[in-house]
Amino acid sequence: MKNADKGSRSSLRTHRPSRQILTDGAYETVKELIMDNQLEPGERINIEELARQLEISTTPVREALARLESDGLVRKRALTGYAAAPLLNLASLGHLFEIRRLLEPHAAAKAAKLATDTEIASLREMVALMRADDIGDDYSHYRTFAAHDTEFHALVARYSGNPVLEQTLAGLHFHWHLYRLRFEPEVGVDTIAEHADIATAIADRDPTAAGEAMRAHLQTSEQRLLPVAQREASAPED
Known about the structure:
3% strand, 2 domains, 11 helices, disordered N terminus, Arc Repressor Mutant, subunit A, mainly alpha, Four Helix Bundle (Hemerythrin (Met), subunit A), single chain
């Protein structure tokens, strides 16, 4: 009987989810809560309560929150722990797009000169994947679309041949902040068309057109988000 018990315990250990799997699950759960504003901007995150709800220990929850902090979605406060990051306000939205307008058109223009045929095919494939995505108006329904959107911009930066530029843009984590402000299916349709224009200009080896296509995309993206940021700025505080 003792040997049977030992075998049973060994089997449980074999099938127990790894800590990495638990951390990944906690990461996705908290991200979804933040992206859908179920965890409101600035709201404190109770690690112990979250661990109880997920039926896991606090260790993978803490590891997930550390990852979310590096994504810019949570902030760690002295003495009080983690809280959901605030939404972009008008000033920070303007600053973010100012930096993007300086960097991303240049990246697109360089990609038009340097990208290989295989790399151009990857950009076109990303546009095709976005067209195939099932887009809804909450994070669980646009998670894949958001990931493809992020990857498209990351690829353009990578194909510029400048790793510092690529790392700088990646460090902004701008997609998560922008998607928190608003996402509607029609925005996705516009984004796909603008990405297609960028990919076509890069495929045509036209640096001027590629830079302008990226600049136009950034301009319309900012204009789509400005009314939302303005509403947030004028909303009365509780």
